[in-house]
Amino acid sequence: MDGASTKGVLSHLSLLEVQARSRKTQPQQPSRVKELKAKAEALMTQRDQLKAEIETHKSLQKLRASMDKQRTHEEEEEEMAEDSDNSQLLRLMARHTQLKDLLHAHDIIGGYNIIKTRKGKGLCISLTTAYNGVYLENYNLEMDLKPTLRISRDNIPPFIPLKSLAEQSNMQTDIRTLLDPLSQHLNAFAARKQQFKLVKELHKSVQVMESNALCSLLVLMFTVPREKTAVLCSLEYTDHTRCLPTRVHFECEDKGLPDSPQWKKNGSLLMETPVHKALITMKKMGDIV
Question: Is the model's pTM score more than 0.70?
């Protein structure tokens, strides 16, 4: 009996213990749910924070890109401003070069420079001559301003009609009326003189038989290759303001040669082309040696 009752008590105690354990576990379930909910909320909060950080990072990237673009634009504007300054400098340099070229061209075609002398009481005028872009001689005039404008000294060649040009001009009111025709005479003379020089240098087979100081007359002797005939060629420059002849005349033992079509063509060539260049063409055509 005692053993049975003891066993029964133990069984009852075990049942009570199981029940007690059961009661202890039941209240813990809501706590676990809360814990999981709290963890989920924490994860969601962390997710939201990460999203916010990502959006912030994107915004910063956009802002940085915008700032970089603006900086690049500003740098380009600065470079453009620098380029503008450089362009302006280059334009000024180009203009300076252009003006120098114009002055050079002015001298080439018979320009002149004027300098005041004797504290404004006189003028020194320099006239430059040139041919085919090559500077040749310079000529000078010294002029008194008072009581009237007049030429006091000069180194103009005596065969240039300086006195006649001065009388025909209105230099008291416009000095160019003297200087322009004078420069024309001087440049024409310089051009003829240079042509005669080039004939001697470039055409050894052509003999210069006669010329004068004004270079208004040139007599040449040619040799015709086929007939071995000598041809005397006279070039007259009666217009002293030009560097081309006004008359060309041929003389030859063969009386028919000067009137032949080819030599008439050569005569026209010599009247329209500087003599040293015309001779090159005549040689190429086989008309002279």
Answer: no
